[in-house]
Amino acid sequence: MSSKNTILVTFWGTRGSIPTPGSNTEKYGGNTSCISVSQGETMVILDAGTGLRNLGLELVRQSARGSHKINLHLLLSHTHWDHIQGLPFFAPAYRAGTHLTVYGSRKKGNFLESILRGQMDLNYFPIELNELAADISIREIGEHQSLTLGRMKVTWEEQVAHPGGSLRYCMVVGRKRIVYASDVELDCIFPPRGDKTRHNRTLIDQYRTMIHGADLLIADGQYTEADYPNKVGFGHSSIELVARLAYEEKVKQVAIFHHEPQYSDTTLDRIWADLSPRYSLASPSMNLFWAREGMTVAI
Ligand SMILES: [Zn+2]
Ligand SMILES: [Zn+2]
Question: I need a labelling partner for 263 at 20 to 30 A (CA). Which of 57, 149, 153, 236 fits?
């Protein structure tokens, strides 16, 4: 049943690292990271991977039906290709009626704006960032800040266990809470692999506190535990660890996200069939599912 607090989460791109078009990725999708989180008139976009293109086309279709001007908040976890490459192909950015605010960590060695401008340099793309018709502002955000967007409150934390770092975001509307924590290598923080330094213990506490009791956790689960030892240091987590931590922290639903480019639909189905019943049949139960392009979840 929907209420004024209902949050709609739509996955526009769920693949990690690089787009993977093809018949063996049709089910879960080949576009890279992009999610929309809507509540009332407020729309937040999490990351601007190639999935952003289809979201843009949908937003233009909706505004052509006369619903409203486009006012968007784009929260970037970080600026690796698979999280920004959709931006030059985002149709609303070419329209004067669009207001787009882009948020990202100020903890980058380079200014966020120069990174986004750089990917639209004429060497890479025919149209430059400042030629876009939309009203675009780029805001660097620091730690211990928060944003209030409509009825949605957004907080974030730095995730250090990823090359160059990344941010995770928490979105709260009323008593509902959604956490987006992609591009983080939890396996190198948590035991048995993570060491017992005070720094690590702080990172563990921060992660557990943020996900505790979440209605939906969208989590980096790029590898199986069996494949992970070959990918240590790549900056991504194993599915089994993410599921175990979420269950311990009483998370209600977990969307495994940032799928490994080498995993076909059949592989992802098999991993899900192996792991998901362990949680759906437990008491209390937890819904562990694989994020799929085009899927909308109501929270
Ligand atoms: Zn990524
Ligand atoms: Zn990354």
Answer: 57
Burial state string for 83-121 with b = 16 or more CB within 10 A and e = fewer than 16: bbbbbbbbbbbbbeebebbbbbbebeeeebbebbeeebe
Render pLDDT for 247-281 as a digit per residue (tens, 0 to 9): 999 999 999 999 999 999 999 999 999 999 999 99
Domains (ranges, CATH) in the chain?
8-298 (3.60.15.10)
Split at pLDDT 50, 70, 90, the class of 144 is: confident
Q: How far is the CA of 170 from the centre of ligand 1 (A)?
A: 18
pTM metric for this prediction: 0.96
Ligand in closest contact with the CA of 182: 1
What residues sit around ligand 2, an ion, with C-beta below 5 angstroms? 80, 183
Q: Minimum-distance ligand to the CA of 85?
A: 1
Across 106-263, the runs of DSSP E, i.e. the strands, are 135-141, 146-149, 152-159, 166-173, 176-181, 216-220, 253-257
Nearest ligand atom owner, CA of 80? 2
DSSP class of 160: -
